[in-house]
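Q: Hi! First time asking for a complex rather than a single chain. Here are the components, and I think there are two in total. Is that enough to go on?
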Amino acid sequence: MTPATHARGTSLKVLLFAGIVALLFSCAIARPCDAYDLADKVTEFTLENGLKVLIVERHTGPTVALYISHPTGAIDDKAGCTGTAHFLEHLRFKGTETIGTRNFGEEKQILRKIYETGDALDRELIKGDEADKEKIRELRKHLETLQAEAEKWSIPGEIDRLYTEHGGGALNAFTGQDITTYHVSLPSNKVELWARIESDRLANPVFREFYTERNVIIEERRQRVASDPGGKLREQFLAAAFTAHPYRRPILGWPSDMRYLDFDCMSHFFTTHYTPDNTIITVVGDISPEGAMEIIRRYFGPLPRRPAPLRRVTEEPPQTGERRVTVTFDAAPRLIIGYHKPTLPSFDDCVFDVIDTILSEGRTSRLFKVLVKEKGIAADVRTANGYPGARYPNLFVIFAQPVSPHTTAELENTIYEELDRLKREPVEAKELEKAKNQLKADLLRGMSTNSGLAGMLSYYETVAGDWRYISKFLDLLEKVTPQDVMKAAQKYLTRDNRTVATLVKDE
Amino acid sequence: MGDPDDIVYPPLSFEPPKAQRVALENGIILYLLEDHVLPLVTLSAVVRAGSFYDPAGKEGLAELTGTVMRTGGTRSMTGDHVDETLDYIAADLTVSVGTESCTLSLSVLEENLEKGLEIFSEILMNPVFAEEKVALAKSLEMEALRRIRDNPQQAAFREFRRLVYRGDPRGRLSTIESIEKVGRDDMLRFHRRFFHPSNTMIAVSGDIQSRELVVKIRSFLGGWGGPGKAQEAPPPPTPAEASLDYFYKDTPQSVILMGYHAPGKKNPDFYPFEVLDFIIGSGGFRSRVFGEVRNRLGLAYSAGSFYSFRTSYGIFGTYAMVNAPSTLEALSAVAGILDEIKSTGVKPEELAWAKESIINNFIFSFATPDRIVTEQVMLEYGGLPDNFLTTYKNNIEKVNLADIRDVASRYLSEENRVVLVLGDRKRFDTSLSTFGDFHVTEKDGR
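A: Yes, that's all I need. Here is the structure of the assembled complex.
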């Protein structure tokens, strides 16, 4: 489960396929056995500027799913500027030099003044109690005047208007810790519209409505974290589980950073990370690969090659003792337990996909069975492998909620008993086979829509560096034995390697 | 780069595949559509039953019946055995219960279709509601109710439902006490009353051979009998008077909901109202509530409108989640948008944009075989004409400015408007009374 936040959406959607992988794809009336070979279904090419393209032709309906992913996200936020990657994702819906303006020459002058005035205002505000109140009042007023003036030149919501007017659906974007994705589904004859808009916002984005949008992301945080017990607990949990690696920071940012995110910060992040060789396009649907390729070449080919950034990411040092966090909130209790582990494409990560399935997929999974069905002490229990990102060593996580009057302590004890059982007894052959069946079927279901398949290819090409990881995963999965499960459990599911966060009701 | 509005697109020629309709001898209506891209099969049975029919004092019965049908075993298998079998073949089987319909859905690999279909049929016809599973379902449902207040949006939408449907069974919601009163016998009775072949329609799509599948379904469900068909639930009464309710929650962000009764799908007003809703708040960045409250004022991350409809009635509403000190500012901004539309209508270019968007997006109703069959079932379930989908685009195309103004003034009347504000009034910008007299639904705590 990758936490991700969206530019446009109103629902609390979560990208669910992190860690659950593999792809069986079939043609005609094929059976799964001859369906594993994806190689001849995906057309793959790289433009001279480094931009990567994956295309799958599939005629289930007259539509096409279009995904653009960049291997960047909150991990690339600079210290003091947390929330940059996510705020940038929002700003990229504000148009370009030719989309969303009546006269960019005129508009540009005012936008520059807006950034300058906003910057001066931030410099004053950041002084806190020492700030000059009168100066703040004047700058605010001046900013409002400029914003009103800018409205005369801008046409708000043009990108959104173009897509919806042409029948676009599922228009959205999400920012993760280490992947950022923009996607839309269109009637299949409208690929050129997408290419026109997307290539333009990779070349000439304009950050309109900058300061009002900054308020929108602050409101987003209020909705997802400050008013949401689950969001609040996850944030505190991650901040404790990671001490040095950037996964410890919230994607949305810390409030005191978000309040002062400025134009330079955004512009620098964009130039550094949204380069052609940091861009992966995936097209799945009712199109011909040649036709789609021609359009993509024409629009994205001219983007100038820029050197890829050197990424410096602090490694998380090994955990040497249990960490515990408590959050007090006006809500019923809940619990998160997490363990550090390696990420894909390591064999152990695949073993954890199996453990994840054995513990919590379906009504016969171990934790659900014991906590919910038999003891009746949990309202819900889930696990996730690969939290909160997948390009760096990450966590295996357990989320649980007690049924009143049972406590999180009771849940914890029962969960540890089950984890100990994994370490002590090899899983039976039939249970392992069930887990493998479930993982493969999940994968197949994920591919049943164009956007599902596009999302999967796009995700693995970005996170694992190659969409073929999907078939590699299937090979790894076949190899997993009961001994492997036991060894991984013994190695990683230890007291010293865990972080426990509990939400306690505010009485 | 050229103007994106000047791009010329190749024509889109598309003939939607047609689902095959089969009526079984015992009254079950089947819709089938083959699709051999992946070795998967999806089945959904829609049954006319739901929480509308919960007896007074036992609210939650329909929901619990659905849950325990899935978990409580059948005449031939215990619930645990059902779970084991389904998990082993990696099949997903869910029962979901709405106000006026119950849906039993199965997703299964083609190679396991026979087994999946057998369990699906047994659950539909012969659930036994084992006592221990009844107790478990009740305990979980009560815990879910205890937790509703934890999530401000959930709490607000639930309360909104109670208010917008007051005086109607749809507005009677389950409580811990009502769940407590539901027993196994109630579930057996509820199942006996509604789960009949003539009250059931089934949509099947995926890797099937239609002819063989009909034979199979007949072998599993052909012997199922039972009387009659449930009547469609009557539409809810429009609230007799306007209301403004305040619901306390210790939270930094207020949830503002404003609702009205709206036309159903059978009503000719449906088409202009759909366009109206798009312009007000479900058409993305360009729609008015989103554009104003989020993009221009920066007051919310989530703001917009929704229009949910059945055959004979609909509910329209606006929503905004805003910083508590902006509550009244946002509330009056939304009310102002609706007032303006009622008094001056919408702009011609807004109308053109909304119509074109809706018409061009319509093709997604045919994006997957599953959607095609489900749409067909829901049309017949709702008693809508066969040509509903083929005339839909044309009916949207015909909507004009006068129609929009007309439906706006008739349906968005302040006289039966339902407003709910959830939050902490101590933190509001001004008193809620500046907007109107309000009723306190949930008192301020501590």
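A: Chain A touches chain B through 92 residues (CB under 8 Å). Let me know if you'd like any chain examined more closely.
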